[in-house]
Design goal:
Radius of gyration: 20 Å
Helix content: 25-40%
Shape: globular
Largest sheet: 6 strands, antiparallel
Oligomer: single chain
Distance between the termini: 53 Å
Order of helices and strands: HEEEEEHHEEEH
Strand order of the largest sheet: 1-4-5-8-7-6
Number of strands: 8
Length: 174
C-alpha cells in the first residue's frame, strides 16, 4: 500500500509542477503595457539615427520582466510601408517572434509570411532598447502594425558567450 501512495504522490507532484511551469511560461510573467501616446510606436530615421513617433491607433502590447525579448505589440496606422521606407531604417532579416496564443492580435506565422512575400515591411523602431536588443516594427499594406524585440548582433554575441568586440557598446553594469 505504501508503494501505491508514493507513486500517486510522485505523479501528483509532477502534474502540479507541469501545470505550474506551463502557466508561468504562457500567462504568469506577462503584463499588459499601458499606452504612452507618442512613445509606443517609433521608427528610427535614416538621416538622423534617432527614433521618431509615427501616427497610430488601436495600440495593444504585452511585455514581461523575465526577458528583454518578450515584448509584442499590435497597432494600426494610415501610413503605407512604401511611405515609411523613404524616411526610416529598414530591418534586415526581421523574424517575428511568437506570442502567447491568448494575445490574439499578434500572429507571428502570418506576419512572417507577409514579410517574406513583400506585403509587409520591417523597420528598426529603437536600437538597443535593452542591451543587445532592438525593437522591430512591421507594417502591412492594410495598415496593420506589429512590434517585437529581437537580439541584434551584439546581443547574439553577448548571450551566446562569444567575444563581443569593439563594434558593440560597453555592456551596462547591473
Amino acid at each position: 500500500m505504501t508503494g501505491k501512495m508514493l507513486a500517486i504522490l510522485l505523479v501528483a507532484c509532477a502534474v502540479v509542477a507541469g501545470v505550474s511551469m506551463y502557466y508561468l511560461q504562457v500567462y504568469g510573467y506577462y503584463y499588459e503595457v499601458e499606452p504612452s501616446p507618442g512613445q509606443d510606436v517609433v521608427l528610427t530615421e535614416t538621416a538622423t539615427g534617432q527614433p521618431v513617433p509615427i501616427a497610430y491607433s488601436a495600440f495593444q502590447a504585452i511585455d514581461a520582466d523575465s526577458s528583454p525579448i518578450r515584448y509584442r505589440a499590435c497597432f494600426h496606422t494610415d501610413l503605407k510601408p512604401e511611405q515609411l521606407a523613404v524616411r526610416y531604417m529598414s530591418a534586415e532579416k526581421a523574424e517575428p517572434l511568437t506570442a502567447p496564443g491568448w494575445f490574439d492580435c499578434y500572429d507571428a506565422a502570418t506576419l512572417a509570411e507577409a514579410l517574406a512575400n513583400g506585403s509587409a515591411r520591417a523597420f528598426i523602431g529603437v536600437k538597443n532598447i535593452h542591451y543587445g536588443v532592438d525593437r522591430i516594427v512591421a507594417v502591412t499594406q492594410d495598415g496593420s502594425g506589429f512590434a517585437w524585440h529581437a537580439l541584434n548582433n551584439c546581443g547574439e554575441k553577448a548571450y551566446d558567450g562569444t567575444v563581443v568586440g569593439e563594434e558593440c557598446p560597453p555592456r551596462p553594469e547591473n
